[in-house]
Amino acid sequence: MKKLYAIALTTLLLVSGGVMANDPPDAEKPDGAGTPEDPYKVKTVEHLLFITHRGDLEIEGANNSTTTYSQAERWSAVYEQTEEDIDFGTASPTIQDWDDGKGWLPIGIDVSAGFTGIYDGKGNTITGLFINRDDEDNVGLFGHLGEGEGDAAEIRNVRLEDVNVTGARAVGSLVGRVTGDQNTLIIGCSATGAGDNRSVTGDAAVGGLVGSSNSHREQPGNVDVNPLISRSWADIDVTFSDKEDVNDPQKFGGLAGCSQRGRIFDCYALGKVTVETSSYTGDDVERIGGLVGCILTWGQIQRSFSTGEVIIDGNVDEDTTGGLLGNFDVRQGAIENSYWNTETSGQISSAGDGEGVTGLEDGTGSGQFGNQESWEGFDFTDDGAWQWDDDNNQPALRDVPAISNIKWKGASDTSWSADGNWEGDRIPGPNDVVIIPATTSPYPEIISDDGLQSIQRLIIESGASLTLETGARLTVERGLTNENGTGGLVLKPGASLVNNTSDVQATMENKIDGGGEWEEKTTEWYYIAAPVVDQDIEAAMQEAFPNGQDATDFDLYRWSEEDDLWINYHGNDFARDDFFSGEGYIFGASEQVTLTFAGTLGSGDIQWAGLTNTGDGSGGDEEDEGYYTAGWHLLGNPYPSGIIDEGWTKEGFVETLKIWDNGSYIDQSGGFIPANTAFFMQVNEGAATNTLIIPPTARAHEAPSTKTTPQNRILLVAKAPGSEMRQQQVIRLEPDAAEGFDPRYDSRFMAGYAPQLFSITETDRLSTLAIPEITDDLVIPMVFRKNHEGEDFLIHLERNIDETEIYLHDLKTGSWHELGYDKPYAFTAEEDDDPIRFELHFSPPDDDDPVDIDETPEARTAEMWFHDDRLYVETTEAGMQLTIYDLNGRALQTNQPGLGPQSYHINLPPGAYIARLNGKDTHKTLKIITTNTP
Q1: Whose CA is closest to 523, among 776, 667, 725, 253?
Q2: What whole-number distance in Å separates Cα of residue 11 and Cα of residue 24?
Q3: CA distance to 564, 786, 800, per residue, from 615 (Å)
Q4: How does DSSP assign 358-406, residue by residue?
Q5: Fold adopted by 106-397
Q6: % helix / strand / coil in the chain, to the nearest 5?
Q7: CA–CA dist 793, 789 (Å, integer)
Q8: pLDDT tens for each residue of 715-762
């Protein structure tokens, strides 16, 4: 193939009669289409020139035809360096002569025109990279990587050898500047060399592998949405250019010049970092480190180390020079399990102020540095990132597994987990690009029994489809392409998808049980949210009621904080034609229906700002006055998966959110919100501004393991015997809890249909109360109000702080009761009771009479409740049978409980199930949602 007019202006140097001999060779198009299923196959220097060319590139084909490949197309394509090492030394003319001695022209220019594609070196080498552009910024093999949200810009398994790179600002051997998000990745890459060919030189932001790593966000909501450098290393000498007129010289590191808002995990640097001034006469050069020159806001370093000598002389700031890190900005930054060799570096200190940075002495192997046991946090298992290098007596990185393509062939049925349905007779794994061609019907289905499926990328071709059945879970790490619209990707009720790609079309269903009492005070209201953008409400209702529907078949409300009103869809003030992404609603139906949401899946950061706190909390009903308090907003989980309340930005908000569960609003702090689910958050009274950001890293298929459940909680539950409705009261032990309402920990009470139980202070009614300590004289007054379920009620203790005694003083009867997991308090309540019914104590009464825990009346009927994957059953009827069913009615687990309180671990995959307790005189049903992994 021949290039016609493919030389960039920066390399086009005309001489008399032609082009100078210092032009690079002609670019050649690699085989392939540049797509994930058919990447460009890079094998030669000429193929690399195809990538780097600036502007449109015309390639001559057969029969004198030409094809134009735009810069944008080539810089967003997928490349594989397959089975070939590439050596610039084989090029003619030599790379040192290209562009009048400037050498290689970097791939990507700046944030407006960066490389946003994928380059997979497959572990092959690129040798002899030479760049001499001391007056240009963003210099490296790749000049600029990433440009904005959703771009899956990635460089993996590239190994550079014999590197000689010079630039101005943002200079690295592999990448000059990174500006991206969590989809921007450098993994499994390295750079090394010998003699003069192991150097990177520049004015500022200079690193052995990467010059500068930064987020495209000015204010990231969470460190986990920042670009990542992982499992990579550099053995490169980094040097300050020492030019006289350098503007603001700073940020020099053996691996990266600076990680402003970037993450560096499992990396190391071995080369020297030298900042010496003789020509330069300006202000002191700053931020110099053996691994990284600096971490600024939201930057992270984890499980990394450096050994290279850090040399400074002249106009250099010693206070921002360190063995591992030169400068550390404490605002949300973090350094964990990261080390430097104090002997070889010549530096006895490093920035970080104890943030996990430790100096390890003696690089000979006889001291800490050479002791594998010293490397806390490093994973040396067979599946871990690290292995022990016996020759050098220090950690070394394992190779990153290669990415491979695997195609669906549907040989036997629709089963995703059947080996024979895939080319190569193996099911996809975490390092696979999965391709579902249109010609291979039947198309795959993932079921709950398949467990969590994790793959690199998913490509659904036009005409093909993938279905996630109820309970199925799929994670697509790096990219999802659905060419078949909403019919190409279908999520059945209870399915879960986590992916890192925007603009993905899909259909997601939400099953609503419905029932004839949905208009009454029952649990038959569903707090829903749309996982797609701008779903038409009327279209969804027509899909749910194919035989026609009217106002008696369903009800839909949104909450207006300004008006303190639930606004009905059938009225004139609803002001919504679509389900808004990020907004919550309540829905009830007279029969079981399935709501269908079809469109573009929610992705990326979801942000709310400027929400109101103007209502009076009346709830629009004198009967409910004061039940809500002002500032509550009903928001919605916008993703096709659950989300965990961790890593959110909550400025001007009360930290704890609420979800609807079993007839009441349940406080969630660090908890789990399932897909299709709405939740309440309260704007903090008096906050001048408010911003709430949920980052995509909050997405999860299931709740966190119960092993990580906070141990500083007391949880009380009030309910009628045998009822599913339950109200929770949480007491949090927080040593730094402030007096008065503390928005970090406290949460105001909201009334539902369950019996009301909440604590009171001088100013607030609280469903979560934070206290700095528990003392013998601590007394917490509590309100109880009965609901419509009769006069008999119970208060259970479902979580406790270790070794804490809890006593409930009933002010109506004067009795005391010691609460325990198997010791609920049974009592009666009437409408005209004094609402301040109880006091919670943490020591027995002062008199000498012991608390008689046997005086509590026995439960009058069988009952069930569920918490932390355990089903609690209490009955006085012998011979009852307990059965757990899935949502399709299949019996999965059966037990025969005896008399009295008992509990059972529900060891089933995460999802929704039905528990039924059947006896001669009693029949109870309870919907449960498990979170454990069996």
Answers
A1: 725
A2: 8
A3: 6, 26, 36
A4: EEE--TTTTSGGG-GGG-TT---STTSSEEEETTTTEEEEPPPPPPEEE
A5: Pectate Lyase C-like (2.160.20)
A6: 5, 40, 50
A7: 9
A8: 999 999 988 889 999 999 999 999 899 999 999 999 999 999 999 998
Characterize 902-931 residue by residue with b for buried, 16 or more Cβ atoms within 10 angstroms of its Cβ, and e for exposed: ebbebebbbbbbbbebebeeeebebebbbb
Q: Quick one: tokens of 734? A: 């927080």
Check residue 221 and give its pLDDT.
46
- Counting as low any pLDDT under 50, the low residues of the chain are 1-21, 220-221, 355-356, 362-366, 619-626, 707-708, 850-851, 853-860, 933-934
Distances (CA, A) of 785 to 755, 757, 835, 837: 6, 7, 6, 8
DSSP-based three-state secondary structure for 49? helix
Strand-strand pairing, 505-512 and 593-600: antiparallel
Amino acid type, 324: L
DSSP string across 148-181: STT---EEES-EEESEEEE-SEEEESSEEEEEE-
Distance CA 613, CA 299 (A): 34
CA dist list (Å): 468 to 219, 445, 474, 508: 35, 6, 8, 9
Task: Answer whether 234's CB lies under 8 Å from 269's CB.
Answer: yes
Judge whether 106-397 and 863-930 match in fold: no
**CA separation for the pair 829, 818 (Å, rounded):** 19
CB atoms within 10 A of CB 373: 6
Phi first, then psi: give them for residue 249, nearest 5 degrees: -75, 125
Spell out the residues 6+ positions from residue 695 whose beta carbon is closer than 8 angstroms to its own: 182, 220, 221, 222, 224, 225, 605, 647, 648, 649
CA 259, CA 244: separation in Å to the nearest integer?
26
pLDDT at 1: 36
- Residue 111, Cβ neighbours under 10 Å: how many? 16
Token pair belonging to 906: 């529900």
Question: Residue 591 corresponds to which tokens in the numbers above?
Answer: 């029969």
DSSP, res 687: -
For residues 337 and 50, give the distance between their C-alpha atoms in angstroms, rounded to a whole number. Answer: 41
| Amino acid (one-letter) located at 489 | L
**SS3 of residue 442 by DSSP:** coil
What are the tokens at 925?
Answer: 């049903």
Q: pLDDT tens, 341-383?
A: 888 999 988 887 554 456 665 444 446 788 888 898 999 999 8
- Residue 543: which H helix or E strand, with range? helix 537-544
Nearest 5 degrees, angle CA 13-CA 15-CA 18? 90
Pick the CATH number of 863-930 from 2.60.40.3080, 1.10.260.40, 2.60.120.10, 3.40.50.300: 2.60.40.3080
Alpha-carbon dihedral sign for residues 860, 864, 868, 869:
positive
Q: What does the angle CA 715 – CA 720 – CA 723 come to, to the nearest 5 degrees?
A: 95
Q: What is the DSSP string of 598-635?
A: EEEBP-S-EEEES------S-TTSGGGTTSS-TTEEEE
- Which two three-digit tokens encode residue 453? 């499926």
Residue 43: the pLDDT is 96
Domain extent listing, the chain: 1-105, 106-397, 404-501, 526-592+605-691, 710-858, 863-930
Length of the chain: 934
Strand order in the sheet with 159-161: 86-87, 125-127, 159-161, 190-192, 233-234, 268-269, 305-306, 338-341, 357-360
Residues near 813 by beta carbon (within 8 Å), at least 6 away in sequence: 827
Q: Could you tell me if 98 and 104 are in contact, meaning their C-beta atoms sit under 8 angstroms apart?
A: yes
Please state, in angstroms and as integers, the Cα–Cα distance from residue 430 to each residue in 384, 417, 418, 457, 477, following that order.
Answer: 14, 14, 16, 9, 8
